[in-house]
Amino acid sequence: MQDIDAEIKELIATIIEKDASQIDPDARFIEDLGVDSMMALEILAAIEKKYKIVIPEERLPEFITLNATIKIAKEYLADKK
């Protein structure tokens, strides 16, 4: 599962235009990393596309940190199996 963590971190780093090494897993997207609502939607869409899963948009407010986002993605990946 470690590779999923790294892949999602890379995806997010690309979208928010930061180096993956600069992203603290507990840094808050909006307050600490300057993520806006469009970027959040991009992150959601990128994860769905990469892993061929569907995450309801209602879950978007829960995407507050890298760790939270990975946890949600893994929930839907587990359901897929």
Strand residue percentage: under 5%
Q: Could you name the ranges where pLDDT drops below 50 across 5 or more consecutive residues?
A: none
Query: What is the correct CATH architecture?
Result: Orthogonal Bundle
Order of helices and strands: HHHH
User: Helical element count?
Assistant: 4
Averaging pLDDT over every residue, what do you get? 94
Q: Class in CATH?
A: Mainly Alpha
Q: What is the helix fraction of residues, given as a range?
A: 55-70%
CATH superfamily: ACP-like
Which term fits the overall shape? globular
Radius of gyration: 11 Å
Cα separation of the termini: 14 Å
Q: How would you characterize this protein structure?
A:
There is one protein chain. With about 80 residues, the chain is mainly alpha-helical. It has one domain: ACP-like (Non-ribosomal Peptide Synthetase Peptidyl Carrier Protein, Chain A, Orthogonal Bundle), CATH 1.10.1200.10. About 60% of the residues lie in helices and about 0% in strands. The protein has helices at about 1-15, 30-35, 35-50, 65-80. Helix 1 (about 1-15) packs antiparallel against helix 3 (about 35-50) and helix 1 (about 1-15) crosses helix 4. The longest helix is centred in the first third of the chain and has 15 residues, at about 1-15. The chain is globular and about 35 Å long. The chain starts with a helix and ends with a helix. The model has no long low-confidence stretch (mean pLDDT about 95).
List keywords for this structure.
mainly alpha
